[in-house]
Design goal:
With 254 residues, the protein is of the alpha+beta class. It has one domain. It contains 4 helices and 9 strands. The strands form 2 sheets. A 7-stranded antiparallel β-sheet has the order 3-4-5-9-8-7-6, with helices on both faces. The radius of gyration is 18 Å and the shape is globular.
């Protein structure tokens, strides 16, 4: 993939925002290589009220948000047939936390992120959701939660980690579902950033349909995930340091 950068100045750059527009989110700048992706969308969504019980396990009480989605040009071979899976996407979500009240689901993730940034743990118990935020949450557990790193930028701080999700054992890391995930908070506490980008690596099976030659697929999966932790950042595609530079580029309204 080419790595030439473009600047997404305003959501209007890609066709405008659905009303009601949030002026604060509209003016957030981020440098993304949009020319490397397909069908790029940049839209706003209005905030929603406190989630109803019927929304569980996917609480829908989102704050006002701006969502940038970049369709990945690389193939997803396994998706040619119906299959329950979590294919990796390329998405940046910006949430405005100003005046959202005290009962929003996201606030629990804000506190979890603050705790993570204080403790800065480099490893997690397998499948744990106790230490790293995942908002908006996936209705699944972690199969991969590796290469954890914490970063302080001019606009705020956050945590990056490799992630892959699963609802059961018997799955394994692969190049269709692996992503590099970021959760961050602006210095003034107003904006929460949730981002994920599809990444691939040569040591991984190309597809989720691959059948490993092993008597213990769960042990195989754990070993493969641990091997990812030992790989150089720029041996991934895109390079992890390149992705981090995209998030570092965020500029907040003055």
């Amino acid at each position: 993939m080419k790595r030439r950068f473009s600047i997404l100045l305003f959501c209007g750059f890609l066709g405008g925002c659905a009303p009601p527009a949030n002026d604060y989110l509209k003016k957030v700048n981020i440098a993304l290589p949009v020319e490397n992706y397909q069908d790029v969308s940049d839209k706003q969504e209005a905030g929603r009220e406190v989630s109803s019980p019927m929304a569980l396990p996917f609480p829908d009480d989102f704050p006002p948000s701006r969502i940038i989605v970049m369709k990945d040009p690389r193939p997803y071979p396994s998706l040619s047939e119906p299959k329950y899976s979590f294919p990796a996407q390329n998405v940046v979500r910006l949430y405005d936390l100003k005046n959202i009240g005290e009962k929003r689901t996201i606030l629990g993730y804000v506190e979890l992120l603050k705790k993570a940034l204080r403790e800065r743990k480099r490893t997690q118990a397998p499948g744990s959701r106790d230490d790293l935020p995942d908002y908006p949450t996936h209705n699944a557990g972690f199969l991969v939660q590796h290469k954890i790193s914490y970063h302080d930028y001019s606009w705020g701080s956050g945590v990056f980690y490799l992630a892959q999700f699963t609802q059961s054992r018997g799955n394994f890391p692969n190049n269709e579902e692996l992503c590099y995930q970021f959760q961050g908070l602006s210095k003034d506490g107003r904006m929460y950033v949730s981002a994920a980008f599809r990444v691939t690596h040569p040591i991984l099976p190309a597809t989720m349909s691959f059948t490993p030659v092993t008597d213990d697929i769960d042990a195989y999966a754990d070993k493969l995930a641990d091997r990812l932790d030992q790989q150089a950042d720029d041996s991934f595609s895109p390079g992890l340091s390149v992705i981090r530079s995209w998030i570092q580029s965020i500029k907040l309204p003055e």
